[in-house]
Amino acid sequence: MEIINFAEQRSLVGRFMMELRSVDIQHDKMRFRRNLERIGEVMAYEISKRMAYIAVETSTPLGTVQSEVPAQQPVLATILRAGIPFHQGFLNYFDDAQNAFVSAYRKYKPGSDVFDIHIEYIASPRITGKTLIIADPMLATGSSMELAYQALLTKGKPAHVHIAAAIASQQAIDFVQRHFPDETTTVWVGAIDPSLNHHSYIVPGLGDAGDLAYGDKE
Predict the structure, then answer these.
(1) How many domains does the chain have?
(2) Helices (DSSP H) in the chain: which residue ranges?
(3) Cα 84 to Cα 33: distance, rounded to the nearest angstrom
(4) Least C-beta-crowded within 10 Å: which of 123, 127, 166, 190?
(5) What pTM was computed for the model?
(6) Mean pLDDT calculated for residue range 41-69
(7) Confidence of residue 37 (pLDDT cuts 50, 70, 90)
(8) Dist CA 88 CA 125 (whole Å)
(9) Helix, strand or coil, per DSSP, at residue 21
């Protein structure tokens, strides 16, 4: 399984990640959402280099030209709600892609920090034989991603899965490597942080991406 960590290379993703993390910048919700979107755009561009292409003949005002275009658009999936602006970045580039949405949430046991992940909703096209991109800005434990993937498998078996996250914990990366197909999975991440706190939030992380993008929840 290939893990592409943008923190190990110099690119504009580093600037966008800095602004997502900064306590002086991240509370500008519009800017926070746009930075997630921009990271999604960069990742979409990089993923596009791995896809199959076909030649098409294009008519111009003065003649014809051969162009290389993707042989098939991917299916773009996201986990609600923090994933929406991140997902939009991918959709900006794969603008004719089919889309899938999964609702996953933490259900805490009364009086404790222990929780289970629950899937409540899924809307997806058939994914058999297609490239599937699952975008979720925070890959904390990896459990939500794995359950979302299992839910999507009810719609078929993809040819290849790209997991995209702005920030992942090392624990989540290890989890994904154990639970996803090794030969047909690629992970794209803006940064890999070393640990989780007792609430299973990524440290140093950036906080709650859903709240920062859309406001506090009760």
Answers:
(1) 1
(2) 13-21, 29-48, 83-93, 143-152, 170-179, 209-214
(3) 9
(4) 123
(5) 0.91
(6) 96
(7) very high
(8) 18
(9) helix
Tell me which H or E stretch contains 11: none
pLDDT in tens, 65-79: 999 999 999 999 999
Q: Which two tokens stand for residue 60?
A: 């111009």
Q: How far is CA 18 from CA 41, 175, 206, in A?
A: 17, 26, 10
> Given the structure tokens 């197909």, which residue do they identify?
181
> Cα–Cα distance between 196 and 213 in angstroms, integer?
21
Decide: residue 208, CB within 10 A, 0-12 exposed, 13-18 middle, 19+ buried: middle
| Nearest residue to 137 (alpha-carbon basis) of 100, 174, 167 | 167
Band (pLDDT 50/70/90 cuts) for residue 199 is confident
Domain around 150: 2-214
Q: Report whether 78 contacts 85 (CB < 8 A).
A: no
pLDDT at 27 over 80: yes
Q: Specify the DSSP class assigned to residue 12.
A: T
What is the 3-class SS of 135-150, one letter each residue? ECCEECCCHHHHHHHH
Quick check: bond before 106 cis, omega within 30? no
Helical segments of 56-119, H only: 83-93
The position carrying tokens 């909703």 is 121
**Phi, psi dihedrals of residue 73, rounded to the nearest 5°:** -75, 145
Q: Take residue 142 and report the two structure tokens written for it.
A: 């990896």
* Residues contacting residue 157 through CB under 8 Å, at least 6 positions apart: 127, 128, 129
**CATH code for the domain of 186:** 3.40.50.2020
